[in-house]
Write a structure and sequence with these properties.
This protein has a single domain, classed as TIM Barrel (Alpha-Beta Barrel). It is globular, with a radius of gyration of 17 Å. Strand 2 and strand 3 form a beta hairpin. By secondary structure, it is α/β, with parallel strands linked by helices. 33% of the residues lie in helices and 17% in strands. It starts with 12 loop residues before the first strand and ends with a helix. The structure holds SN-glycerol-3-phosphate and calcium ion.
Length: 254
């Protein structure tokens, strides 16, 4: 696992959250292409399953917010999803953009950047989701440039078994629930921890490092917060605006 791309990138690793989220419609090919053009070395995306078991890239449980359609992603077939416009809600410049499949994103990126695939909750079909995603990553031979994460412990466990060479992160919620999740990390033994920024402190990061776990925090768009987290030794963070992150990091002397 040590020759994985994650361990070759300079820290902190900036993950372009859902692609270039502030510049193009999130989780679309246009968004990932834009992030690559802006110099992203790492991308983040979210996956779930269609009704006919295809792995698609979308954040929400439904298509309502980010397309001109309605309904739960898990209840729509890929052919129905592919008819939806996933760009106009963001800007007319992106009219006709589609919800991509994971395969389409892997074909676009082709190892040019690290990808964090966040496995969402496809409920009783999570096993199928994890297996399909793992098969695709194997088929495309991109194990060394992909990491996984999930808020769902079972997804973390399943993907570690499927792809032992891909680092896997456990996402934790803000507040009290997040604290409980962090206290129970032993049962999951993730390689990485992806906490909400409000759970972080220099001491927390130090403790995770003592367990040889990298800390990638979400979602950081504020320059002062970035500077603080970098000072505390964060290993990476998810960001909607690559320009802000690039400006902050270039102004910090290490
Ligand atoms: O992976 C970090 C972040 O994406 C987790 O939250 O809700 O944006 O998927 P969310
Ligand atoms: Ca996500």
């Amino acid at each position: 696992m040590n020759n994985h791309r994650l361990y070759e990138l300079s820290k902190p690793v900036v993950f372009a959250h859902r692609g270039a989220k502030n510049y193009a419609p999130e989780n679309t090919l246009a968004s990932f292409q834009k992030a690559l053009e802006m110099g992203a070395q790492a991308l983040e995306l979210d996956i779930t399953l269609t009704k006919d078991d295809e792995v698609v890239v979308i954040h929400d449980d439904t298509v309502d917010r980010t397309t001109d359609g309605k309904g739960a992603v898990n209840d729509l077939e890929l052919a129905e999803i592919k008819k939806l416009d996933a760009g106009s809600w963001f800007s007319n410049d992106y009219w006709g953009e589609r919800i991509p499949t994971l395969k389409e994103v892997l074909d676009l990126v082709q190892g040019k950047a690290l990808i964090n695939i966040e496995i969402k909750n496809a409920k009783e079909r999570n096993r199928v989701l994890v297996q399909k995603a793992a098969n695709l990553v194997r088929e495309k031979r991109q194990q060394e440039s992909i990491i996984f994460s999930s808020f769902y412990r079972e997804n973390v466990r399943m993907v570690r078994k499927e792809l032992p060479n891909c680092p896997v992160g456990f996402l934790t919620l803000p507040g009290f629930i997040g604290k409980i999740e962090i206290g129970l990390l032993g049962g999951v033994s993730p390689d990485l921890i992806h906490p909400h920024f409000s759970s972080l402190s220099a001491h927390f990061i130090e403790r995770q490092h003592a367990h040889l776990r990298r800390v990638h925090s979400y979602t950081i768009n504020d320059a002062d917060l970035m500077r603080t987290l970098v000072r505390w030794g964060v290993d990476g963070f998810f960001c909607d605006d690559l320009l802000i992150a690039q400006q902050v990091l270039s102004s910090i002397s290490y």
